[in-house]
Amino acid sequence: MKVTKFTLLAAGLLTASTASAVINIVTIQVGNAGNAGNAGKGGVGYDYHIGAYEVTNSQYTAFLNATAATDTHGLYSSNMSSSTHGGITRAGNSGSYTYSVKSDFGDKPVNYVSFWDAARFSNWLTTGGTESGVYNLNGTTAPTNNTITRDATAWSNGGVAIASENEWYKAAYYDGNDGYTLYPSQSNSIATADANYNNSVGTVTDIGTYAADPSYYGTFDQGGNVWEWNDTIVGDVSRGRRGGSFNSGDANLQSSFRSYGGNPALEGNYLGFRVSSLAPIPEPSTYAAIFGSLALAIAIVRRKGRGTL
């Protein structure tokens, strides 16, 4: 198993108003390309990297400070501040908004994010901007759902995406021998000591809290904590979700359970996401050739074993 820790300096397009921020994304390499699926899910014909953890409040706050001084596309929800489950506050006025992480919420998964918020975060990791990258949104806050798919060139050149359903499913349930387990903890049984579900905690927990129960590849919290968006289009008008949340019953954590998706504009205390990419991510000069003027500095640290923050 290969773990890659991407330290991304995402400075956006070179404008005076664009903030820069450093974030760490720990990814797990998912191999066994061409594996058989399970009831039509989880078969992936390529190796890829997926976030070992859900995207956190600290990571999303860096994104907001880099891109949402005006917040044209509603990347911030007031519920992030007012709810006991949310982890981000906002200060200032439109044009000069700044964002901060609430105390003790930095390593908790970001929630109250729509699919489009997650897509813009992925674009930011790809190009430094929000509107182009793996998802070409072209300034439309909530595009017609079935018109937005992965840009093949951006993806093949190492762009960052919201994990697809098949990528997510394989990382969660694959057992390493062309089989699948019922839960994303290498097991066909689960207890509340193994994951954050069934209101055993009553709110979101820090990523990796249940580190004793990773998936086969070494991902964490793919069962419970927050439902995770995936970029599979469901019935043209919805996007997929997987994994259950802190207030879900155990059935929602199972590989056999498929949420029939949700309105991609939906936000809730139970909704988050994780990212995926083909590895390695290209050097900044490669991005510049594809996407134009941008600043994206990347330092890659590789080591064997499971990832840590």
Task: Walk me through the structure.
The structure is a single chain. With 309 residues, the chain is α+β, with helices and mostly antiparallel strands. The protein has a single domain (2-304), classed as paralog of FGE (formylglycine-generating enzyme) (Alpha-Beta Complex). Helix content is 16%, strand content 20%. The chain contains 6 helices and 11 strands. The protein has helices at residues 57-67, 79-82, 115-127, 152-156, 165-173, 284-291, and strands spanning 2-10, 21-30, 48-51, 88-91, 98-101, 160-162, 227-234, 238-242, 271-272, 275-277, 296-304. The protein has a 6-stranded antiparallel β-sheet with strand order 6-10-3-2-1-11. Strands 8-7-9 form a 3-stranded mixed β-sheet. It has a two-stranded antiparallel sheet with strand order 4-5. It is globular, with a radius of gyration of 18 Å. Mean pLDDT is 87; it is low at 9-20 and 280-309.
Broad CATH class: Alpha Beta
CATH architecture: Alpha-Beta Complex
Q: Outline, from the CA principal axes?
A: globular
Main sheet overview: 6 strands, antiparallel
Structural class: alpha+beta
The topology string of helices and strands comes to EEEHHEEHHEHEEEEHE
Radius of gyration: 18 Å
CATH superfamily: paralog of FGE (formylglycine-generating enzyme)
Q: How many separate structural domains?
A: 1
Mean pLDDT: 87
